[in-house]
Queue: 3 jobs
Job 1
Amino acid sequence: QKEVEQNSGPLSVPEGAIASLNCTYSDRGSQSFFWYRQYSGKSPELIMFIYSNGDKEDGRFTAQLNKASQYVSLLIRDSQPSDSATYLCAVKAGNKLTFGGGTRVLVKP
Amino acid sequence: DAGVTQSPTHLIKTRGQQVTLRCSPKSGHDTVSWYQQALGQGPQFIFQYYEEEERQRGNFPDRFSGHQFPNYSSELNVNALLLGDSALYLCASSPGQGWGHTFGSGTRLTVV
């Protein structure tokens, strides 16, 4: 079992719709959770982080964390073609980040 | 305010050679982490440096080594290059035990 798992996609979403991305992790000692966006050929860019159970909203993005279920998700509202990218879930335990394989999102006009 | 800077941007090496990659952290950050990202995969943690010492290491062989300088900049060295070392090498900095990593633009290493 991988430490951090994501559906590789692609997740195809019509413009203006909600994109829902999921991530599960195995280490119950994980302390904080991050979502990064990575455009093709570029480096990861931090979108959001969350460390308490529940929801955290930032603009069109909402992160949800359920530590009991070892599950973290990202919702992208009003999806735009510029949101087309790979979204990486990362889990922090100790000093390092452990990444999932990423979910590729395609927003179609 | 300069972010994380990495050099070189691209590099082509032959199997068996050695390579050194460089990273300057974001201003105010004292911790540097290195990641390897193969095509189509998420970044894999190599190691982290803090106060000029390796603080934590991932599952990478001893061919991968590093260094951090007093000005917090860092180098990643890879000896005896293999074809499988071809990847994007990412440097990330953070303010000590800070929440998130800020990534540099990466060095694309191709081993032929």
Job 2
Amino acid sequence: NAGVMQNPRHLVRRRGQEARLRCSPMKGHSHVYWYRQLPEEGLKFMVYLQKENIIDESGMPKERFSAEFPKEGPSILRIQQVVRGDSAAYFCASSPEGRLNTEAFFGQGTRLTVV
Amino acid sequence: DAKTTQPPSMDCAEGRAANLPCNHSTISGNEYVYWYRQIHSQGPQYIIHGLKNNETNEMASLIITEDRKSSTLILPHATLRDTAVYYCIVRSLGGATNKLIFGTGTLLAVQP
């Protein structure tokens, strides 16, 4: 059973470009969480999604950031018009449906560098 | 979600037990205690979780006090590869969201 897969592992974008980060949850998992880790800082919750639904986006910046988890395919975190302050590691986690007291498994992250 | 308090850093000699404390005095009845760790530049790794009973798995043991206001993660025989930031998280399950809220954690440095 493959773990949570994130791609790309490293992404370089120029200021003003768009960044798309992908997360494929573990097989059988329908809950996805995105976190951001700025350099030398802790993990900050961004958004929690279930298939086709955003459940909690309380940690998402109000502008330029969006997330989706379609019925088919990976979850996508999209950052429009990137700025240098968006440079960070973005981690995705997944957990299974129907079992609340369970662990969430994390991917290895996408490291975004804005130049 | 209840907040947690952890020491910012700890040292442990290789081969000895590492005991990492966590205070969660405002924990409520439906909140679980989770432990994760993050080895430098990697994704967080699940270690163990519990509600009120002590738990043990192949990685660690979790000791939760009877009043549930604090807990200790025990790595029985620490190795150099256990050097990481360890996060104690109190997670409220049910309701609209099951997110994990990470604090600043404890940087465990295992010394040779």
Job 3
Amino acid sequence: ETGVTQTPRHLVMGMTNKKSLKCEQHLGHNAMYWYKQSAKKPLELMFVYSLEERVENNSVPSRFSPECPNSSHLFLHLHTLQPEDSALYLCASSFDRLLANYGYTFGSGTRLTVV
Amino acid sequence: RKEVEQDPGPFNVPEGATVAFNCTYSNSASQSFFWYRQDCRKEPKLLMSVYSSGNEDGRFTAQLNRASQYISLLIRDSKLSDSATYLCVVKGPNSGGYQKVTFGTGTKLQVIP
């Protein structure tokens, strides 16, 4: 139990499908994040939420749409994705988005394959 | 120059060996530093923070050199279970409404029996 739970663990979707990734944290953290990890590349920040408010959208295409209904839950809605969007999508949380000395707790990720 | 740079490896070392990784960063205003460990097809997990005076956690020692802008991780008496990718993470300065966090691509370690 990592404290950050992501579902589903694996997802295969067609380019015309709509799906959603879910993340839930039980740590009382104030900030939540979506990251994308592709092979041979560093983790890429997609979105940052702090107390349900989006504070960063890192030039992510509109086919990715985040939602944060409360400080414990984060969703990533997917539609009309491309094969190059296939990657590991990681949710993370941290105590506070601005405090330097706190690390992240990651969920186990959703491995997405777009066909 | 990459913001955070690591040798991708792989570093293949025998059990019991000592191995060290370096990570360089480009932004001198960076505020805090971490090492994460990522096993194959799993999520990254925080291994240790890196403090200015250096810090040790069992067989693991982390060092920070602000003048030369690098951090290091030393693993003594390597175990098979240490085989993983080690990610260098640099935080700060603050950017807009949050603290900028930059990940390295990771250094792969394979400990051989």
